[in-house]
Amino acid sequence: MLNFFRPLAIALAAVLLVACGSSNSQSSQTATVSTSTAPGTLAVNPPLRIASLNAATLQSQIAATGTTGEQLLQLTGNPTCGVDFYYLKFWTVGGAGETTESSGALMVPTGAAPACSGLRPIVEYAHGTQTNKAFNIADITNPANTEGALIAAMFAAQGYIVVAPNYAGYDISTLGYHPYIDAAQQSGEMMDILTAARTALPNLMSASSGNGQLFVTGYDEGGYVAMATLRALEAAGDKVTAAAPMSGPYAVETFGDAVFFGSVNLGSTVFAPLLANSYQHAYGNINHAANPIFSTFYPNAETLLPSDTPIDTIFAEGLLPENALFDEATPVVPGDPVLTELLGVPPTSALPLSAQTPLFQLGFGNPYLINNNYRVSYFLVGGELRTDFYVNDMRTCQDYLLCNRLEGEAWVPTVPTLLCGGGQDPTVFFGANTDAMLSFWYSLPPGALPPGAVTELDVNATPAPAGTTSFFPPFAALQTGFQTSQVELLAYYQTAAGGGLSPAAAQQKVTRGYHMAVAPFCTAAARVFFSQF
To answer: What is the pTM of this model?
Structure first.
C-alpha cells in the first residue's frame, strides 16, 4: 500500500543507492527492439541493466545502518548472492483489451556460491497499491522504492530470480488508468511479463536461468493479483510450484459489503477511485448521470489516480478526502427500515474488528466521497459495483458473462498455498478476505480442496507451542517477532524521540501503520514456505 513498509526497508533502498550509483550499464550486446506488440512480447532484448552489486557490499552496508539494518537482516538473512537489476519492457493489454507497453523488474542473483548461478527458481512478485503513476519497481537506485529493495534482499539475494511488473497504467504505460482489482487483466499481465522474462534470461550478462520451479506471491493489491495469477496459470495448465498471496482483498464481494455497510477500511478513499476507473473501463457500468458514484465535492475523483501528484498533496489540496468515504448523514431507504438501520452507524458486531469501531467512524464525514444514493443502490438488485465485485471475487468464476449468469465454477488451488496476513488489519480485513477464502474452500464438497493445499498464517495470532505441527517452526518466530515489534513501536511513539504521543495517539499511529508493518514479516514467511520445495 502507500509508502509500503517504509520503516524496515528504507535503509536498504539507501544502501542500494550508494552501492550501485556508478554501475548503471547496458548489456554489452546490442539491444533489439521488437516490432511485435503481441501480449507477452519482450519489447527490448536484452533489457537494460540498471544496477549490479555483490553480496559482501550489500551485507556490510545494511549492517552499517544500525538497528534498522539489524532488524532487516534478521528477516532477510545475510545475502548469499549479489544481484543484477534489469528494467524489463513488454507488451500486454488493458482492462478493455487495449494494447499497451508495460514494464517491470527482472532481478537475477549473481556470485560464486552454488545458489547464485545456473538453474534457479523464479519468484513472480506482485506489488501493493500505488498512487504514484511514475512508480517503477525496477529502479532500485530510487530511495523511495522500498518494496523493490525488500524483495531484492528477501528473494534475489538468496538465489531466486525475481520477476515483478509495474502494472499497466504505471511508468511507461500510456493506458491512462490502472486496471485495479481486475482479475482477468492483472493475471494476464503477470503471465505476459513472465513470458517476456523467460525470453530475456538467456541473453543477460548474469549467468542464471529458470530451473522449472515457479513461485507466485505479492502483498496487498499484489496479494489479490498473486491469487488471480495462480488461478489463471492453473487454468492454462502451467506449472506452479507453490504460491503465497499476502494480505489481499481476495473475497472482493464480502469485503465490499463490509465497507458499504459501514466498516470503512483505512485507505478506502484511495481504493474507491482506482476501482471506479478500473471497472468503468472494463465493464462500462459505473458512470450513470442519474446516479453518480462520487459526490460533487470531488468531481474529478474517478480519473485522479494514479497520479504524478503525491497523495498527501492530493489530500491537502482537497482533491480527495483522507478518510470520509461516506456521508455522515444516514441514507434513508423508503420501505426498508432494516437496510436503513444497517447503513447507519457501524454496528459493533460487523466484523471481528469490533474493537476498532471508533476507527470506522473516520469513514463518515462531510464533505464525503461516495453519494448516499449510490451507497443504497449498491445493495439493490442490479447494483453494478457489487456485480463487478462478484465477478472479480476469487470464490467465483473467471468469465464476466458467465459470472453475470451465475454459471461460474468455483476454483480451488491445487498446489501448496500460503495465505499470510494480520488478524487486526484495518486496511484489508483479514476476516472478510483470508478467513472468507478458507471458509469457502472448506465448505466445498469433500475432495474439492486437496488435503494440506492451503496454509493460513495470521502473524497476530498466538504462536503455536513448541513441538506442535500447526505451523512450520519459523512461522512461530515470525509471529513473535511481529508482535514484539508492535509493542516496541507503541512504546517508541510515546518517547520524546518518537513524538511524545499519548497512549491513545500512539495506538492510533500503530494502527494506521499496521498493514505496512505486516508486509515484511509475511514476505519472510513466504520465503520460508517456498524453501521447503
So the answer is: 0.93
